[in-house]
Amino acid sequence: MVERFGEVDIEFYGVHLAVVELWEPPDEQVVEERLELYKSNTGQYVLSHSGIGWCASGTIIDSPEQVVIGLMDRDGFLHDLQKRLLREAGKYDPAIKKVSILNLSPDAVRRLASAVATVSGISRPELEEHLMRIERSIDDDPSQAIGSAKELVESVGKNVIEQYGGKLDASYDFPRMMKEAFRLLELAPENVSDATKGAGAAKSVLAGLNQIVHGMAELRNLYGTGHGRTQKSPAEGRHARLAVGAAATLCQFALLTLEARASSRRELEGFDRKK
């Protein structure tokens, strides 16, 4: 097939993955903006952008990751039309679906996803299951989003303990398990020496981690799923966003610390071998 983009003809052999459009008021019947995505037989993508007020253009893109980047605005965000294109294309192209899942979520979920995906040993399917539940429910079923955010933090805590070779005690509740994870990561207030510069501030921040854990547990008990709830939860989207935002902060710091500790251990082991 041959697609004309402005002054350029692109000879293209492949499949049409998706097209999405933004219309002017129905009575006008004018396409304000149109996005289309193709995939060539060689694995490249072509992103087409047209519509009234737009200079029709087509961009050849080498990878799914670059497709997502190409759809972002200058601030690194995806708007509704771009998200719709990725969702539609992801139905037919597993590679697009895989790279776009972290970018189709609300910002707090995306930060949480990026933190977990980058440094944790949590399996990709497990991560995607948590994230998809949160994404689908943050507005439509806030109680589910709150429960899922708490479960993801719990997965991070278990991962930390396992990385240190610890054994999970079945009697541990959520706060006690996270307290053990913080102890292993040396993120308890008592780990900060009083002689350390800014010790008071550091201890306050670390104490705040435990407050987040207890707060999430309380939010989940009050608004989240579970515990045989027989009445509709009073949770709203704002409660879900609070829980997800808190989870993002906690997971990101805990997992980056886990990676930093692991890196330090590897350096020490390398130093000992050299000696």
Structural notes for this entry:
- This protein is an alpha+beta fold and 275 residues long.
- It folds into two domains: 1-104, no CATH class; 106-275.
- Helices cover 54% and strands 14% of the residues.
- It has nine helices and six strands, in the order ββββββααααααααα.
- The chain has helices spanning 64-71, 80-90, 94-100, 107-119, 124-137, 142-163, 174-184, 199-223, 237-274; strands at residues 2-5, 8-11, 14-23, 31-40, 45-50, 57-61.
- The strands form two sheets. Strands 3-4-5-6 form a four-stranded antiparallel sheet. A two-stranded antiparallel ribbon has the order 1-2.
- α6 packs across α7 (174-184) and α8 packs across α9 (237-274).
- It is elongated.
- It starts with a strand and ends with a helix.
- 28% of the residues are buried.
- Compressed to H and E, one letter per element, the order equals EEEEEEHHHHHHHHH
- Main β sheet profile: 4 strands, antiparallel
Number of domains: 2
Strand percentage:
5-15%
Rg estimate, integer Å: 23 Å
Percent in helix = 40-55%
Shape: elongated
Side by side, the strands of the main sheet go: 3-4-5-6
Give the total of beta strands: 6
What distance lies between the first and last C-alpha atoms, to the nearest angstrom?
A: 65 Å
Secondary structure class reads: alpha+beta
Q: Overall mean pLDDT score?
A: 76
Uncertain spans, ≥5 residues at pLDDT below 50?
1-10
List strands and helices in order, with pairings.
Layout: E1 2-5, E2 8-11, E3 14-23, E4 31-40, E5 45-50, E6 57-61, H1 64-71, H2 80-90, H3 94-100, H4 107-119, H5 124-137, H6 142-163, H7 174-184, H8 199-223, H9 237-274
Antiparallel strand pairs: 1-2, 3-4, 4-5, 5-6
Helix pairs in contact: 1-3, 2-3, 4-5, 4-9, 5-6, 6-7, 6-8, 6-9, 7-8, 8-9
